[in-house]
Description:
Pfam families: Flavin_Reduct (PF01613). Residues 25-176 form the Flavin reductase like domain. This protein is mainly β. The protein has one domain: Electron Transport, Fmn-binding Protein, Chain A (Pnp Oxidase, Chain A, Roll). It has 4 helices and 14 strands. It has helices spanning 21-24, 69-77, 90-95, 106-109; strands at 28-29, 31-36, 42-47, 50-54, 59-65, 79-83, 114-115, 124-125, 130-143, 149-164, 169-170, 173-174, 182-184, 191-193. The strands form 4 sheets. It has a 7-stranded antiparallel β-sheet with strand order 3-2-6-9-10-5-4, covered by helices on one side. A 3-stranded antiparallel β-sheet has the order 1-13-14, with no helix packed on it. The termini are far apart. The site of flavin mononucleotide has 18 residues, from β3, β5 and α2.
Amino acid sequence: xxxxxxxxxxxxxxxxxxxxxxxxxxxxxxxxxxxxxxxxxxxxxxxxxxxxxxxxxxxxxxxxxxxxxxxxxxxxxxxxxxxxxxxxxxxxxxxxxxxxxxxxxxxxxxxxxxxxxxxxxxxxxxxxxxxxxxxxxxxxxxxxxxxxxxxxxxxxxxxxxxxxxxxxxxxxxxxxxxxxxxxxxxxxxxxxxxxxxxxxxxxxxx
Length: 206
Ligand SMILES: Cc1cc2nc3c(=O)[nH]c(=O)nc-3n(C[C@H](O)[C@H](O)[C@H](O)COP(=O)(O)O)c2cc1C
């Protein structure tokens, strides 16, 4: 019965041409995160190990696999901004992931405009239609079942201000399908977009 199922223990390898893990846990929303270091140098980078974890207060989080500039900046300042990555901004988002020294400003690299935030020091991406200003609440270093630390940090932050382009509010309701969200899937290059054709509704049982 299980001959039709490919089973593996990740610690022993997947035995496939590509690791299916992040193709399965996907497509994922992208945490396109802007930060500043203590001296005010700007940074922008995408993190697809990203999601929302709480409603009230709203808390979002992302995982830095390795200690990267974004993590270091948040450790130093406690602040970050999440910017919605859309189909129109996909190329710029991708350019902002270049592994460049901390002093290189990815806003300039990707041709994006910094827009001052209201509650935190890192700027928003002016071209992005939705942004969250966030203050870091916890930074957790992950560990395996054996208790050994892995070099990955989960950064959690409370959303202290939300900015939404009014064109995306239809009778006051946020238009997810109209916003052109992009989502990261597996492999070196796979992304998805969502539009009205993917929408279906199910109500919870009462
Ligand atoms: C779509 C996309 C998603 C990514 N997701 C992650 C992620 O979840 N965690 C991570 O550590 N790096 C991720 N990366 C790679 C980082 O963006 C890259 O290492 C970047 O240089 C980090 O920038 P920083 O050092 O300025 O923070 C992703 C890259 C792309 C293009």
